[in-house]
Design goal:
229 residues, alpha/beta, Rossmann fold, 5-stranded mixed beta barrel, two-stranded antiparallel ribbon, 5 helices, 12 strands
Length: 229
């Protein structure tokens, strides 16, 4: 039997998918849905890098999955991305793992020679999804993962000068690091809920982003179930 792990930080991000699955099958106590030749497990990690890293490590230590899909919403650094757009994140960076210098600039741990930028799973300090080329139906973007979402004009301007990323999340790099270290096939799929700009929650479109995200996820699972993995 093939195994799929669907990973999200929060339940509300994948609520439409869960509702759809529950109409097809009764899940067990661990949010596992078993079809004839496909087992779909749901992992809700909680928000942020530490929670995601721990929950993923625990899950991947005990079970080998044929595919892991990380799904959620994200902020867009690229103004060309429309709110509600759904993208595949093909590379990730730990964007704030380092030190703040006296002049306010940022130096990452690679430049400080505390982490080898070429040591697996890094490629010049980035993590690249080597499994994602098998899935080519969404626009591909580069992502950064942060512990503190950017919300001030000054920090956003610095970020845009130093990063070529298109989206910002709080868990993506944890998924990349863990899956690459375990050599686990995976995808990171994100929908755009807001632009990375001076913090203004009134401009966010979370409901739209969740709707569009699940409009992509549900057909993916339909195809997997119909093909039985």
């Amino acid at each position: 039997m093939k195994k799929l792990l669907l990973v999200a930080a929060t339940q509300f991000e994948i609520a439409p998918l869960l509702n759809w699955l529950e109409k097809l099958k009764e899940p067990d106590a661990e949010l596992k849905f078993t079809f004839q030749e496909l087992e779909v497990s749901i992992l809700l990690t909680g928000v942020g890098l530490p929670l995601a890293m721990f929950q993923l490590t625990r899950a991947l230590t005990t079970t080998r999955y044929d595919l892991l899909i990380n799904a959620g919403i994200a902020g867009a650094l690229d103004a060309q991305l429309e709110l509600g757009a759904v993208v595949q994140v093909v590379s990730e960076t730990f964007a704030d793992l380092g030190v703040e210098e006296a002049d306010g600039s940022f130096t990452d741990l690679f430049k400080l020679n505390l982490i080898n930028p070429l040591a697996p799973p890094f490629q010049e300090g980035k993590m690249v999804n080597t499994f994602g080329s098998a899935y080519d139906f969404l626009p591909k973007v580069h992502g950064i993962t942060v512990n503190k979402v950017h919300g001030s004009a000054a920090s956003i301007e610095r970020l845009k000068r130093t990063s070529n990323a298109s989206v910002e999340s709080m868990e993506g790099a944890a998924v990349f690091y863990t899956c690459l270290m375990y050599q686990m096939p995976f995808l990171e799929i994100r929908s755009i809920s807001n632009y990375v700009e001076p913090r203004n929650r009134d401009a966010w479109e979370i409901a739209l982003a969740i709707e569009k995200l699940n409009e992509v996820l549900i057909p993916m699972l339909v195809a997997l179930i119909e093909n039985q993995g």
